[in-house]
Amino acid sequence: MLRTLFIAVFLSLYILILGPPLLLYTLLSRNVDPLYWAGLRGVLFFVRAVGVRIRVVGIERIPAGVCLFAANHTSSADAPAVVGAIPRRIAVLLKESLFRWPIVGQAFTFANFIAVKRDVRESAIASVEKAVEAMRAGQSFLIYPEGTRSPDGRLQEFKKGAIVLAIKAGAPIVPVACSGAHRVMEKRSLVIHPGEILVEFLEPIDASKYSLDERDVLLQRVHDAMAAGLPPDQRPVGFPGAG
C-alpha cells in the first residue's frame, strides 16, 4: 500500500506543478507533444520507482504509418506499460469518467483521446466513428477490445468496436500481448507489487483486406493471435496451450 501512496502523492504533485503550464503551452501552440511525453514519462518514472519493470519485445514488427494497437487489459498497471512501450504518440479510447479528472481530463482532450460511454450503445458507436475520422487524418490509436479489465488475467471475448474501427479506417491492427500486469496490481485492488510486465508487439494484421461483413472473421483472428502470444495462465480456458 505504501507504493500506491507514493505514486498517488508524488504523481499528483508532478501533475499539479507541470500540468497547468503545459496545458497553457498546448493551448497557445497547438503542439501537444510536450504535454503528452511529459505526462507519460512522469507516470513511467513513478511506476519504475516502486519496483515495476517493463520489458518490451517486437518493436520491429510495428509498421510505419497509422496503426490500431489492440491490447489485452488485466490491470490498471498495464495501461502505462503498453502506452509507454509504443514508440510514437497515440490516442486512446477511454471510459468517459476519466475525462472528469482535473488537469488530466483536459490533457486527454488535447491529446485527442476519445471518451466512450461503454454502457450506451449509441454513444459507443459515435466514439468509434470519431476515432475513424481521426485515424484517417493520421492519428494512431490504442484500444482494449475486451472492453474492460479481465477479472483473472485471462483473455476475454472481444467487443466488435475495435474491429469495425480498423476496417473502416483501413489500418493495420497490431495485437499487443501484455503479461504479468495482473500480478503487479490486481483488479479492484490498490496494492502495487514489484514485478515485471512484458509488452510484446505481435505480427500486424491488415484490416483493409476485410469488409464489414467479415468483421467476425477478423475479430477471431486478432483474438487468437493475442491469445497465442500470452503465457498459458493468461490464455482463455480451452484455448490451445492454456494452463
Describe the structure.
The protein is α/β, with parallel strands linked by helices. It has a single domain, classed as Glycerol-3-phosphate (1)-acyltransferase (3-Layer(aba) Sandwich), CATH 3.40.1130. It has 8 helices and 8 strands; from the N terminus they run H-H-E-E-H-E-H-E-H-E-H-E-H-E-E-H. The chain starts with a helix and ends in a 14-residue tail after the last helix.
Question: What's a quick, concise take on this entry?
Answer:
The protein is 43% helix and 16% strand.
Measured between the Cα atoms of the first and last residue, the distance is 30 Å
The radius of gyration is 18 Å
Low-confidence stretches: none
The total count of strands amounts to 8
Number of domains: 1
Give the assembly state of these chains: single chain
